[in-house]
Amino acid sequence: MSPYLQELNARIAEGLARLPEAFRQRHARYLTSKQNADGGFSGREGESDLYYTGFALRGLAALDALTPEVCAKAASFLRGCLTRQTSVVDFFSFLYACVLVQASSGEDVLANSSPDWPERVAQALTAFRTKDDGYNKSPGAASGSTYHTFLVGLCFELLAQPMPDPDAVIRFAQSRRREDGGYVEVAAMRRSGTNPTAAAIGILHLLRGRELPRDEVASTIDYLAEMPSMEGGLRANDRIPLADLLSTFTGCWTLHQLGALDRIHVEQALEYVKSLELESGGFLGGAWDEATDVEYTFYGLGTLALLSDVRDLR
After folding, report:
1. CA-wise closest residue to 149 among 167, 118, 170
2. pLDDT class for 47, splitting at 50, 70, 90?
3. pLDDT, tens digit, for every residue of 185-210?
4. Which has the closest alpha carbon to 274: 236, 238, 311?
5. What's the distance, CA 4 to chain centroid?
6. Contact, 12 vs 301, CB < 8 A?
7. DSSP string spanning 137-176?
8. 106 contacts: CB under 8 Å, gap ≥ 6
9. What is the pLDDT of residues 133-186, one digit of tens each?
10. What residues does 234 pair with on adjacent strands?
11. How far apart are CA 286 and CA 295, in angstroms?
């Protein structure tokens, strides 16, 4: 397990363990019910998808509800994906899902792969590197993506392989910082966003360690502290009036990592997230949303876990 992901998983699992048993069971049932006959999980429509399978397994693992039965079916789906050509996002989802299945059930999806597969896969990831020393979702991109560079960094950690030329990748991440302390997804953007800021800080934590200089991150903390909307959740950027659960989760996690989660109104953030939970299980993506899915359910669970030590949610 990647140290970064291990820390995230542990923090979410610890927070969820403090919540009522009925709450945990409700969402475990919801996530389990979304598994398809082929063992994978879908988005709101369509066939099983590596991306959503990864989120469903992450949610079940955090709830301590990733059973051998779910793992066995998921392993079958994952084995069927071994020969597919995938994007960086899908490859990360596949790799992480394999780790979760093995950790929860002992079933090794990659047991029949050659012994040097981590080294070969790490070498293949270099094809996604761009001229500005970032990475993008597919080979040949003109410039790097902050988000995809973060995912590639996580892949290297999951593979227990060093990321090539980490100092250059750090410089890439730092080049995406703007005057307001936030970060952007692509070089041409001038307005920072919550999610690219979370990805950039994630890159720095992966490559520089967890303790970033306080004076260096102070303006980033200030930026994220301005992102809550009147609803209490965090917005994707300062031009968007409404919050969403993805930005709320990534913003809260980043503030938690930086030791500054108290910079937002935690009570309001809690009420916002709770307002998106359905009694039947699952979470909406925001007040504007009309349906649940496994991805937003993971964000809802993760955010409540991060904030759960503030007060009793029962």
Report:
1. 170
2. very high
3. 999 999 999 999 999 999 999 999 88
4. 311
5. 11
6. yes
7. SSTT-SS-BHHHHHHHHHHHHHTT-PPSSHHHHHHHHHHT
8. none
9. 999 998 989 999 999 999 999 999 999 999 999 999 999 999 999 999 999 999
10. 228
11. 13
